[in-house]
Write a structure and sequence with these properties.
The protein is α+β, with helices and mostly antiparallel strands. The chain has 9 helices and 21 strands. The structure holds zinc ion. Zinc ion binds at residues 73, 106-107, 166.
Length: 394
């Protein structure tokens, strides 16, 4: 079992602070990517490169054998109302062993911890029986799984195991509900508002769909671990020739959280059934967006992120429990995330065994006064080093 020296710990904290001080809102990860690549080169990785999408990847290992991927995202959401922060979100303020700022918990501290996990392996001369890849990806916040998919399917990473560094408060995350975003267009027939009976009001039609959606909630599937699926209308707009005309079109956005067993086809079909029952004319489709990364790489993305859950008894979960026990001396809690992660692709789509482990608390994610306990960042680094040895024994 390796431990960090005092100067290592200092350096790790300095890196975490520097990462928070380097803004990296989704699409603007260039500066933070350079910082991370330089740190990886300094701290013992065998190879470090940046792919065409702008993801930064480091490799440590034998150059053959099984492949373990540590995955973290470089991007953050915006700071929102700066005045609501008690400390400057980009100053990298440290008080009483806590680092404050945007990205502290989600998930720059974990990126620093992953690098220092490899530094521990390198400094102790630890050989692995396979390759550890540490990948820091772009644009996870707007479209989780997009970069992970490119890495696995197009950049040739093809890992056998994935560890996500999203915040778990040093527990082991086994899964998350998935989600799908749906665009619904309800069509009507325009007419003068003075003679509504001669037209079909798209807003009235959409209202029938919305009530149907509310009635759907109790019948959505429930998983004993991940909980129940949910459905919510999150946006509505309509078009009409004037304020005195009957709207011929009403657009809705539907946010559907998917538990195990719920698929895109099922979610779309549920809405189609309501539409048919109510005699509506509606188009229902998964939202699609075009994403451009800081390198100019462009990708069309469908906003469908499947749910996933690792069995407690799986070798990966057991190895992670062992790694925490051996490096920190206690048995970690097993948990699931409320939010969605790259696991939607790695396990949800690709079926690659995936877990989460990282410093930081889920309740500080995407909030003002985001923070991470620095002692947990060094603990995480030790666990990452141990986990690589558990999963890739020489
Ligand atoms: Zn995150």
């Amino acid at each position: 079992m390796q431990t960090l020296t005092t100067s290592d710990m200092q350096e790790l904290v300095e890196l975490a602070v520097k990462l928070v001080q380097t803004p990296s809102v989704s699409g603007q990860e260039s500066a933070v990517a350079q910082l991370l690549a330089a740190a990886m080169k300094r701290h013992g990785f065998h190879d470090v490169w940046t792919d065409r999408m702008g993801n930064v990847i480091g490799r440590y290992g034998a150059g053959r054998g099984p492949r373990l991927l540590f995955d973290g995202h470089m991007d953050t959401i915006d700071v929102g109302d700066r005045g609501a922060w008690s400390r400057d979100p980009f100053a990298g303020v440290v008080e009483d062993g806590i680092l404050y700022g945007r990205g502290a918990a989600d998930m720059k501290a974990a990126l620093a911890a992953m690098i220092f996990g490899v530094k521990l392996l390198a400094e102790s001369g630890t050989q692995l029986g396979g390759d550890l890849f540490v990948a820091f990806v772009v644009q996870e916040e707007p479209c989780e799984g997009m970069a992970a998919q490119v890495l696995c399917e197009e950049e040739g990473l093809a890992p056998d195991f994935v560890v996500l560094g999203e915040p778990t408060n040093l527990a082991i995350a086994l899964g998350q509900r998935g989600r799908i975003e749906l665009d619904v267009t309800v069509h009507g027939r325009s007419g003068h508002a003075a003679a509504p009976q001669q037209a079909v009001n798209a807003i009235n039609a959409a209202a029938r769909l919305i009530f149907g959606i509310e009635l759907l909630q109790p019948s959505l599937l429930t998983d004993p671990v991940l909980g129940q699926g949910t459905i919510a209308v999150t946006h509505i707009s309509s078009t009409a020739g004037s304020r005195n005309a009957i709207p011929d079109r009403c657009d809705l956005v539907v946010d559907r959280r998917l538990t195990l067993g719920e698929t895109e086809a099922r979610a779309v079909n549920e809405l189609q059934q309501i539409s048919r029952r109510e005699g509506l004319h509606a188009d229902i489709a998964t939202t699609e967006i075009t994403v451009q990364t800081y390198t100019g790489f462009v990708r069309r993305v469908r906003k469908y992120y499947p749910p996933w859950l690792m069995p407690e008894k799986s070798p990966l979960v057991r190895a992670a429990v062992r790694a925490v026990e051996r490096s920190l001396g206690y048995s970690p809690r097993l948990t699931t995330w409320q939010f969605s992660t790259d696991g939607a692709y790695t396990l949800g789509t690709a079926g690659i065994p995936t877990i989460g482990f990282g410093p930081g608390d889920e309740r500080h994610v995407h909030t003002v006064n985001e923070q991470v306990v620095l002692a947990d960042v060094t603990r995480a680094a030790r666990v990452y080093a141990q986990l690589a040895q558990e999963l890739l024994p020489a």
